[in-house]
Specification:
By secondary structure, the protein is an alpha+beta fold. The chain contains three helices and four strands; from the N terminus they run H-E-E-E-E-H-H. Helix content is 42%, strand content 34%. The N terminus and C terminus are likely disordered.
Length: 179
């Protein structure tokens, strides 16, 4: 891996988590693979005759698990549902995965790397797989827009901090109420 790629990965981690890591922090991409893919078109061929404007809904999920020393599997799930006149035209779902080696990162920086850099690396593959499923299903090409995983991660951290503050405040109130 090039120094530029390491520098970019380290900058992403620092920017997202606000935490520094040691000079020995290393990131390596071991493998990218399609873990699961499905396509359903329950109302074909009748849906092809509908004249209404299609409505798209996309959802993202991410799962991370440790599979070895400093090796993490990140699975980015992308689900796209298209409805026309309140009928499902198609549902395409892809679970794009990768094995990432992350060593020497402080916990906050590691979490940021897993929450930003890794899904950024996986999303183009998931986007292509979704597009191919949709097109092979007989529908017009679907071009998913890029996702700002840094902003999503920052929002997740903000919500987590609010929940933590709310729980701490709730515990303090409960203790005060017992006195």
């Amino acid at each position: 891996m090039s120094d530029e790629t390491n520098a970019a990965a380290n900058a992403a981690a620092n920017g997202a988590a606000g935490a520094a890591q040691g000079p020995s922090a290393q990131l390596s991409l071991h493998r990218i693979y399609l873990k699961d893919a499905s396509f359903e078109a329950p109302n074909v061929p009748e849906i092809f005759n509908e004249q209404a404007q299609p409505q798209l809904q996309m959802s993202l999920q991410q799962k991370v698990r440790t599979v070895g020393d400093d090796v993490h599997e990140v699975v980015l799930s992308v689900t796209v549902t298209c409805t026309v006149a309140e009928k499902t035209a198609y549902l395409a779902e892809v679970h794009q995965a990768g094995l990432f080696g992350l060593a020497g990162f402080e916990p906050r920086a590691l979490e940021a790397m897993l929450g930003t850099y890794c899904p950024n690396a996986l999303f183009p593959y998931a986007r292509q797989a979704i597009s191919e499923l949709v097109q092979n299903g007989g529908f017009p090409p679907l071009f998913l827009q890029p996702i700002n995983f840094e902003a999503l991660f920052a929002e997740q951290m903000r919500r987590r901090a609010q929940q933590g503050a709310g729980e701490a405040g709730g515990q303090a109130d409960a203790v005060a109420g017992n006195g």
